[in-house]
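Exercise: predict the fold of this chain.
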Amino acid sequence: MEELPIRPHGLRLQTDFITPEHEARLIHVFEHELSWPAAKGARTRLSLHYGYTFDYKTFGIDPDVPYKPFPDWLRPLIPVLPRQLRAENTGGREELVVLGGEGEESTGQGEGREKVQEGRLPDQVCLQHYPPGAGIPPHADTHSAYDELYALSLGSAVAMRFRRRGASTAPTTTTNDKKGTDEPEPEPKPDAGAEGVEETEQVELDLPPRSMMEMSGASRLHWEHGIMKRKKDVLPDGTVRPRGDRWSITYRWLRPGGVCECGDVRLCDTAQRRAGVEREYRWKTQEQQTDPELKAEEALVGRGGGLDHIHHEDEKSNKDTSPS
């Protein structure tokens, strides 16, 4: 997987991670063989969890729900994160191993079995169905609970929004463990044109079907990510693309020790706990910030507008002009 030359740093994307035939078989399973919770409306996002259950109020593990084993259809798609891999041909970074679709392990480097034996299966896998118009509010998965995240997209393409608002009250220098170097993430500055208004940096990344995305480093820790509730996305060339049914499989690994040292008081629950910020207050604040934005975005897209997108295929024409 190649890192995208855009902000936020730490985003990697591999297109055609599985074949169209494999995707079609999976969608058939999702539509005809799984028992989904009852939808509250036509634009309701639905979720199924395997392993540990994800709690959408805390964005962490729900301790009251028992561990659920991975089903047969999911097993060939289970990624294995090596505990520590510093092979020369990986450039010093850990490579993701996937149990192959035909029951064989496979990696981009042609090595499999040894790494699978050394590695860690994900602790939690979430399957989500996004009907046209569904989305998920901007959020950062709980820092203390989870380490890196991987997500496989199936069905319709969608634009995922990454957002960084305001300046943190603690240093936000992140350590990129895979490269062994520190990558400082510059602080957004307050908007000089409006008193009390914070500047927000936003980037939309187009996720094509069958693509696998990795979030690590700054993209994982210092930016929120979400999908706007809308029935169409506006592409960089102005094309309006309707959304269809989309499914995503998100893989999460528990963070060893359950403590994050990134120091980002705005998004990190470890830093917030140390600063005396209550979890309930953080959730209410997020709801208050998100709802007006969703309404404004829906009205904007309804008129044919929208934010500029950064697409993985348009890297040369959409160069990152933010300070690095």
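Check your answer against the key: Residues 279-302 form the longest helix (24 residues).
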